[in-house]
Amino acid sequence: MNGSGPRPIATLWEWQESAACRSADSARFFSPTGERGFARSERERLARELCDVCPVREECARFALAIGEEHGIWGGTTSQERIAQLRRPRGGRSRADIAAARGREAAVPQAEAA
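Structure for Transcriptional regulator WhiB, as requested:
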């Protein structure tokens, strides 16, 4: 391989070898059908605790965003959180944040010109 072609697939997954969840039960990270309320919150809390100490948390979160993962906790993020991140413009602020900021600016009285 001359280095100009695509990287081998294995290099895209190497970070997983160092993941704290590697030997954990995957049920901690993926909700069963119909799971709601306290059960879901508790399972997500336990999953995030493991993510919080994971040496590859950022790589995991980036990977889930890059492939559009729709299920489970990845890098300490839920699918809903990842969807919200994908909807944010590149500047990092959501459209709602920008609209709220514009509303605050409009409410601030402007100094009168002398």
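Residues 37-52 form the longest helix (16 residues).
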